[in-house]
Write a structure and sequence with these properties.
Blueprint: H1 2-40, H2 64-75, E1 78-83, E2 86-91, H3 94-103, H4 115-121, H5 131-147, H6 153-171, H7 181-197, H8 206-217
Antiparallel strand pairs: 1-2
Length: about 220
């Protein structure tokens, strides 16, 4: 008798736990289905998404743009996909993107900011910010950059001048393969230096190379 009790009791407990789990999953599925159906009425059409995974299994993760182009043929130039639990509205085609960014710039002006970056800068700055704070900082940055020549003929001339030095640096390798990272970084820094200080550095200048090393090691 004790053997039967020892066997039946854990079996009934496991069965109760299993039934409870099934009931919970059914309730969760019904709730999520009703919630998603309400959401679907407010968002553009798109492929059906799986819980948590979204549409990731339907996408070519190495070349997602190919999958998105195929989906646009079925659902139109504006459609919805889920990258995991995150909902993404996709705009496909030049006309659609232009209409969104030019005709509705205010509505599409905000960008997704990762919570970790938002906590680091408290919603301020240019790169990881939105709203009025971002607009004010952008206006301030553009105004000061224009004072240094951005968008003017003088800045264009400095860029062209530095391009000549960069080409000379490339020709030293006689068509052989080489790492372009360092020369391009030197050229970019020299353009900024020419605009801000009115002078540039030679690529062989040890002081200049030392400063670049410190910048990239920081």
């Amino acid at each position: 008798m004790s053997f039967v009790e020892d066997f039946v009791f854990p079996l009934s407990t496991s069965l109760t736990t299993f039934l409870g789990t099934v009931v919970f999953l059914l309730v969760f599925h019904l709730f999520s289905s009703s919630f998603s159906s309400q959401e679907k009425m407010k968002e553009p059409p798109g492929p059906k998404a799986l819980p948590l995974l979204g549409n990731l299994l339907q996408m070519d993760l190495k070349r997602p743009y190919i999958t998105l182009c195929e989906l646009s043929k079925k659902y139109g130039s504006v459609f919805t996909v889920y990258l995991g639990p995150n909902k993404v509205v996709v705009l496909a085609g030049y006309k659609t993107v232009k209409q969104a960014l030019v005709n509705h710039a205010e509505e599409f002006g905000d960008r997704h900011i990762s919570p970790i970056f938002y906590d680091l800068n408290n919603g301020h700055g240019i790169l990881f910010a939105n709203g009025e704070s971002w607009k004010e900082m952008r206006r301030f940055a553009l105004t000061n950059l224009r004072d240094f020549g951005m968008g003017k003929r003088s800045a264009e001339e400095k860029i062209i001048e530095e391009c000549h030095h960069l080409i000379q640096e490339f020709t030293k390798h006689d068509g052989k393969a080489f790492d372009t990272t360092q020369p391009l970084n030197y050229a970019t820094s020299n353009i900024i230096s020419s605009i801000v200080y009115g002078s540039r550095f030679e690529y062989t200048d040890p002081q200049f190379k030392g400063m670049m090393t410190l910048i990239h090691s920081a």
